Amino acid sequence: MGINIAIDGPAGAGKSTIAKLVASKKGYIYVDTGAMYRGLAIHFLDKGIRAEETEKIIEACQSAKVTIRYEDGVQQVYLNGRNITSRLRDEEVGNMASKSSPVPEVRAKLLELQQGLAREQDVIMDGRDIGTCVLPDADVKVYLTASVETRAKRRFDELTEKGIPCDLKEIEKDIAERDERDMTRETAPLKQAEDAVLIDSSHMTADEVAAAVTALIP
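Structure (tokenized):
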């Protein structure tokens, strides 16, 4: 059984950035759930299934196995033993992933695949419900957060750097509303697992947070 690290927290807390840094330091696999959804989408497309054919999507889930590996430090995604990494960013794949992801059976299949990866490899996953639902027995659980103001400023700086006009107060409002939705939804709401370590990154650099998480790993 591999070592499992779960990082949960609200939008904009830096979960993916930290997960990737820790994975690189420790040689673990960072489980990119978005890439896994796209892997399933390729499976559906290759079977000639259309996005509206929900019953066929549900049936096709049974014959799909999506795995993630790192080769020469680069993430590679495999579908039933075939490397499909070069197809992940195709527009039709993205569209199929977006339309098929709300299907409960697709989400259940992805959960099965994620848990299978975690049993076989040393992995780090980030999300809203990793420590509470996906990997409830993870070796290390972290709840990574930051103030709404800090998260909004990070997003504001990111958009400004790309030349995208934005309003800081509007971003703050959007983040606060998203927090409320995530924490009050019926299915797998965002919450800190009882055995998770709380890390507030409001006044920390990414490297400092990554070091703090790494220090928790036995």
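The chain is about 50% helix and 15% strand. The mean pLDDT is 92.
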